[in-house]
Specification:
Largest sheet: 8 strands, parallel
Number of domains: 1
Domain Radical SAM core: 55-282
Helix content: 40-55%
Distance between the termini: 20 Å
Order of helices and strands: HHHHEHEHEHEHHEHEHHHEHHE
CATH superfamily: Aldolase class I
CATH class: Alpha Beta
Radius of gyration: 19 Å
Binding site for [4Fe-4S] cluster: 69, 73, 76
GO molecular function: 4 iron, 4 sulfur cluster binding; metal ion binding; transferase activity
Binding site for (3R)-3-methyl-D-ornithine: 143
Structural class: alpha/beta
Binding site for S-adenosyl-L-methionine: 168, 240
Strand content: 5-15%
């Protein structure tokens, strides 16, 4: 099935009146700096969010199950060449305990996230998924990188509901520069997303805003690709590199686009991308990301929710593991317990006049 065949009528519909959402229109909005015009964008994104997915903010408990990774991505602190990192891999009973805590706190789903770790075998993840589904009513999302179809099918049969795989950028040249392939291991994230949809997964993806070498044209194309693939969940966050990586130091200058073309990795541009994503994918679940909260710990998460987002992913990983899962430094809430994080989020969400979502919070226009 082609990606075009997936797109439903809502995804193909034109944008709201006054909002051109073709490539040129998206590029113009991404570069808009008039506060009055931007206020129109914020209002429209919030209106569409309210009309299409409601006021409930769904909480997805994040469990960082392993910091091992075989990949050499040029910005991530978990990359294989990082030797000073104290790696970990959680045991099955530890992961189940985190899921049980998420359920106790009232969350409707959990996300098992890791580096691309062959130590998380097909049998191990199958065991974990079955245990969570057998012991709780939670929806289970996997975010374990590029995996083969045999693994993906078995995990779906075990009860996994969703899979998150960020394509990061639609520019294939830029993708290869920052995500070098392992020898003999092809990489095609779009193909995996397509296959997972046919397997019955809800699929999630996302991009980073401000990747060195990312242009305004590329970012506009990224947002259009969300619509083309009719993504169920879309994460848009700022590019935040680890200082231990090639893109986290002085070497980054060699990757940057021309000054007039290089997308900044700032809060404003990220929020514009979130708002435009809501307009082109009105029924999708869109998180206000931890990276956005890291960039602006005072108001970043709330601003994301006011610009079209309807999901937050609080961390339920035990703190002694969480501080070792350092994909970038200064990650928001890294030292908070799951319960403290829940109390904080509850207050922040209610201060916006929003409510906490109940149940698994699946795609509103597609049955689980």
């Amino acid at each position: 099935m082609s990606s075009a065949e997936w797109a439903d009528g809502a995804s193909r519909a034109p944008g709201p009146p006054g909002f051109d959402l073709d490539h040129a229109g998206l590029k113009a909005w991404l570069q808009e700096d008039d506060p009055a015009r931007l206020e129109l964008l914020w209002m429209e994104a919030d209106r569409v969010r309210k009309a299409r997915v409601g006021d409930a903010v769904h909480l997805r408990g994040l469990i960082e199950v392993s910091s091992h990774c075989v990949r050499h991505c040029l910005y991530c602190g978990l990359r294989a060449p990082t030797v000073e990192l104290e790696r970990f891999r959680m045991e099955a009973d530890e992961i189940l305990a985190c899921a049980q805590e998420a359920h106790r706190l009232g969350y409707g789903s959990v996300v098992l996230q890791a580096g691309e770790d062959p130590g998380l075998t097909k049998a191990f993840i199958t065991e974990v998924v079955r245990a969570i589904k057998g012991d709780t009513p939670l929806a289970v999302t996997l975010s374990l990188g590029e995996r083969d179809d045999e693994e993906l099918r078995e995990w779906k049969a075990a009860g996994a509901d969703r899979y998150l795989l960020r394509f990061e950028t639609t520019d294939p040249v830029l993708y290869r520069r920052i995500h070098p392939n392992l020898p003999g291991v092809p990489s095609d994230r779009f193909a995996q997303l397509q296959r997972m949809r046919t397997m019955g997964y809800e699929i999630g993806t996302g991009v980073m805003v401000g990747i060195p070498g990312q242009t305004w044209d590329t970012l506009a194309s990224d947002i259009l690709r969300f619509r083309e693939f009719d993504m169920d969940m879309i994460g848009v966050g700022p590019f935040l590199p680890s200082p231990r990586t090639p893109l986290g130091g002085q070497g980054v200058a060699a990757f940057l686009a021309a000054p007039s073309d290089q997308v900044p990795n700032d809060e404003l541009t990220t929020l514009k991308a979130v708002a435009l994503t809501r307009l082109v994918c009105p029924d999708s679940n869109i998180p206000s990301t931890t990276a956005l909260a890291t960039l602006d710990q005072a108001r970043g998460r709330e601003l994301g929710l006011l610009r079209g987002a309807n999901v937050v992913m609080p961390n339920v990983t035990p703190v002694h593991y969480r501080i070792r899962y350092e994909i970038y430094p200064g990650k928001a809430c890294v030292n908070e317990t799951a319960e403290a994080c829940q109390d904080c989020l509850d207050g922040r969400i209610r201060s916006l006049g929003r409510s906490l979502g109940k149940g698994p919070g699946g795609r509103s226009s597609r049955a689980m």
